[in-house]
Design goal:
By secondary structure, this protein is an alpha+beta fold. It has helices at about 5-10, 15-40, 50-65, 70-85, 90-105, 105-125, 135-215, 220-245, 265-275, 290-310, 350-360, and strands at about 275-285, 315-325, 325-335, 365-370, 375-380. Among the domains are: about 5-130, no CATH class; about 260-385, Heat Shock Protein 90 (2-Layer Sandwich). The longest helix is centred in the middle third of the chain and has 82 residues, at about 135-215. About 30% of the residues are buried. It catalyses: ATP + protein L-histidine = ADP + protein N-phospho-L-histidine. One of its GO terms (molecular function) is kinase activity.
Length: about 375
């Protein structure tokens, strides 16, 4: 805690001044009533000088209460010692007991309370009242002191409860903020992964056909027109996919259209129209769920995109097989590239993102080169019944 925080904590507010004034008046009135009772009695309990000293001690005890917030235990101990022979300081002593119970740990409060009881025994022995039973006066003092300490302990525990609730609310707010940041981070990762999966496939088609036009300037008009049509359709579809992905930032959860397992045939058909030799073999028994089908679609999409980028002209085999409870197996395998890959065919983060996607689905993913010089991408996904 810095110096300004300590200064603001020790500074009394209006409520503190009112409370301190009230306690001071309580102690003063207690002393005045005690003095009036002594003056109204048939005889003073002790010599006149002791009565005068008692009044002086009572006034000093009331004045000392303005220090109760800074040193409550020390003040309580001094007033307890004085209360062993001074009756008019009892009001100030009760206020000090209450302050210790409110501001200090219960263990300290118990010790101070026991000392106050011993002071009560000492007062009953040193200054007995001829008109009252010492035992009765002692029990009355015990009852009053117990009530004051009990009230102070109640306020102490209530304050601790309020502080714990404030602390719990602050921690909950901090945790909510951290969860919001994590959710934003996960959302950004999901959007980045989705943009890579969707746009990588489309842009690779554009790259293949644009490269064909660049390296075959003498192609026939029919070939040029066919390639230009594919480029135009792929660019248009890429823009559509980009709008759908960015729509995640505006649309509520669940409104973004997602591919299904049935779209795998369309994905293979697009690659075939782009000039790839793709052989799709499907042995699926049953209807694939949306979540499993979406993950399977992304696996095939990533495999075709990588084959198009890193193995141009190579034949690609896509095999999908499975059944409920047995799981769904997806394999995308391409032969050795017929021509050298282009210079822009660098390794990206597609397989990393795909591994995360498969891990979220509790599946397995394997990939690596084959003995024939090609590349194999294999995955297994759980398929609940």
């Amino acid at each position: 805690m810095n110096r300004s925080a300590i200064t603001s904590a020790n500074r009394r507010g209006l409520r503190d001044w009112l409370v301190d004034t009230g306690f001071f008046l309580f102690a003063a009135v207690f002393g005045v009533l005690t003095a009036a009772e002594r003056l109204g009695a048939s005889s003073l309990a002790g010599p006149q000088w002791l009565f005068n000293l008692d009044q002086i001690i009572g006034v000093l005890g009331c004045v000392a209460l303005w220090l109760r917030r800074r040193r409550p235990v020390e003040l309580a101990l001094v007033l307890i010692v004085l209360s062993a022979f001074s009756e008019m300081v009892a009001g100030a002593m009760l206020v000090a007991l209450f302050t210790v119970a409110v501001r200090r740990p219960p263990r300290t409060t118990v010790v101070v309370f026991v000392l106050s009881l011993l002071a009560g025994v000492a007062y009953a022995m040193l200054r007995p009242d001829p008109d009252e039973s010492p035992l009765l006066l002692f029990l009355l003092g015990v009852a009053i002191q117990s009530a004051v300490v009990g009230w102070g302990l109640f306020i102490h525990h209530r304050r601790r409860l309020v502080l714990s609730l404030y602390d719990r609310a602050a921690r909950a707010e901090t945790e909510a903020h951290l969860r919001a940041e994590q959710a934003q981070h996960h959302a950004r990762e999901a959007i980045a992964r989705e943009m890579h999966d969707v746009l990588g496939h489309r842009l690779s088609l554009l790259s293949v056909h644009a490269g064909a036009l660049e390296y075959h300037p003498g192609a026939s008009a029919e070939d040029i027109a066919r390639s230009a049509k594919v480029i135009r359709e792929s660019a248009h579809q890429a823009l559509q996919d980009l709008r759908e992905v960015i729509g995640v930032l505006r649309a509520p959860v669940g409104e973004l259209p997602q591919p299904t397992f049935a779209d795998v045939h369309q994905l293979v058909a697009e690659s075939s129209r782009a000039g790839m030799r793709v052989d799709l073999r499907e042995e699926v028994a049953g209807t694939v769920t949306d979540q499993v089908g979406r993950t399977a679609y992304r696996i095939v999409q990533e495999g075709l995109t990588n084959a198009r980028k890193h193995a141009p002209g190579a034949e690609v085999r896509v095999q999908v097989a499975g059944a409920p409870e047995r799981g769904l197996t997806i394999e995308v395998c391409n032969a050795a590239p017929a021509v050298s890959p282009t210079s822009d065919a660098r390794s990206g983060q597609g397989l990393v993102g795909l591994a995360e996607r498969v891990a979220l689905a509790d599946g397995r993913l394997e990939h690596g080169p084959t003995a024939a010089g090609g590349w194999r991408l294999w995955s297994w996904l759980p398929w609940p019944p």
